[in-house]
């Protein structure tokens, strides 16, 4: 699999534009500024695939990329940006509700959280979307480069407890900046899409 063979397909602003074509979908979720774009860029080895450092939370779109013509990478809109208007927050919630109603299209969910902090209420809500729909999912603990090894261990325990992760959910320490955890994430994806 050539992860860097990545092509932008489409930006869906409303459910009618969601793609359902039978190809496996690997779906990325995370709060604004957690580094979701950076994780996607590190995964694909592409610097600008998902736009990094956008005004956080500005775009409430579901973005689709085709990876090596084998599977779709789906970038869900970031959440938890406090300056978003109420209308925009409602739009996010509605878009997610509808997206998760077609959960049989989801091959693997990937929730990106910040290794430095306890997962937020919205992280827990997103985790429960994955849990309730019973799709396979994994958690990326990003920004581990900001922590010492012992702190990383502690952080992983906290994430496991807060998100109530069972053994079926891979929890991968990651640093988009150092590209650490990249091969583990790639292996998890390859394992699920085959
Ligand atoms: P998004 O809003 O979740 O897509 O987040 P971005 O990918 O735009 O990243 C938000 C900020 O976090 C940027 O300033 C990134 O440089 C920084 N960032 C992302 N990943 C890492 C990481 O692994 N380590 C560190 N130290 N910073 C990171």
Keyphrases for this structure?
7 strands, binds guanosine-5'-diphosphate, alpha/beta, 7-stranded mixed β-sheet, 194 residues
Gist of the model:
This protein has 194 residues and is of the alpha/beta class. Helix content is 33%, strand content 22%. The chain has helices at residues 36-44, 86-101, 121-133, 149-162, 182-193; strands at residues 6-12, 25-30, 62-67, 71-75, 106-114, 137-142, 170-173.
Detailed description of the structure:
By secondary structure, the protein is an alpha/beta fold. Helices cover 33% and strands 22% of the residues. It contains 5 helices and 7 strands. The chain has helices at residues 36-44, 86-101, 121-133, 149-162, 182-193; strands spanning 6-12, 25-30, 62-67, 71-75, 106-114, 137-142, 170-173. The chain has a 7-stranded mixed sheet, with helices on both faces. Helix 3 (121-133) links the parallel strand 5 (106-114) and strand 6 (137-142). The chain is globular, with a radius of gyration of 15 Å. The mean pLDDT is 92. Guanosine-5'-diphosphate binds next to helix 1.
Topology, element by element:
Elements: E1 6-12, E2 25-30, H1 36-44, E3 62-67, E4 71-75, H2 86-101, E5 106-114, H3 121-133, E6 137-142, H4 149-162, E7 170-173, H5 182-193
Parallel strand pairs: 2-4, 2-5, 5-6, 6-7
Antiparallel strand pairs: 1-3, 3-4
